[in-house]
Amino acid sequence: MVTLNLTIQNVDVNVNVNSITLAANASGLVYKWIDCSNNSAIPGATNQSFTATANGNYAVVVTDGACSDTSACHTITTVSLHEQAALKAIQVYPNPASSFITVASEQTEIVALTLLDNAGRIVYQAVPTNTNYQIPVAAVNQRIVFIAP
Questions:
Q1: CA 88 to chain centre
Q2: Which residues does 48 contact at the CB level (< 8 Å), separation at least 6?
Q3: 16: phi then psi, degrees, rounded to nearest 5
Q4: In degrees rounded to 5, what are phi and psi of residue 35?
C-alpha cells in the first residue's frame, strides 16, 4: 500500500482593471504580463501592475515558487481616450484623403504629431512648425491611421 499526501497550492490570478491599468491581486510574487493575441510576454512588464500603452487583450502569469497560473484575458479599449479633451481643438481633414491630410488647430499648439496604424505601429512622426500641418498621403502608404497627440 502506498500513501500519497498531496497538497494543492492555489495561485491567485484575479486582476483588477482600472481604466488602462491592470493589477494582479496577489502581492509579493513573480509576474509576467502577456499579450493575449499571441501569448507573447510584454518586454519589461514584470510588476504587479501593468499600464497598457495600446488597446488589446492582456493577462498576467503569476508565479509563486514552483506554481504558476495565468489570469483570464482582459480587454483594454480606452488607451488614448483620456487624451481626447486636448484633441477637441484639433481638426483632421479631409476624410478620406487622396493627396494630403491636414492637421489644424486654432486653439492648441501642436508640438508633436504621431500617426499610428491599426496595429499601433508608428507610420509617421513630425514636429509641426505651425498650427496648420499637411501630411502627404503617400508618406503613410495609404494605411488606416490614428493620430496620437
A1: 21
A2: 23, 24, 26, 27, 29, 31
A3: -95, 135
A4: -90, 115
In angstroms, the CA 73 to CA 56 distance is 10
C-alpha cell at 17: 482593471
Please give the Cα distance from 49 to 51 (Å, whole number): 7
Q: State the pTM of this model.
A: 0.53
| Number of neighbouring beta carbons within 10 Å of residue 120 | 13
82-91, 97-106, 128-137: lowest mean pLDDT where? 82-91
Tell me how many helices (H) and strands (E) the chain has: 1, 14
pLDDT at 107 over 80: no
Q: Are 144 and 105 in contact (CB under 8 A)?
A: no
Burial class (CB in 10 A: 0-12, 13-18, 19+), 68: middle
DSSP 127: -
82-91: Cβ within 8 A, 24+ apart: 82/19, 82/20, 83/148, 83/149, 86/149, 87/147, 87/149, 90/147, 90/149
Q: How far apart are CA 84 and CA 62, in angstroms?
A: 34
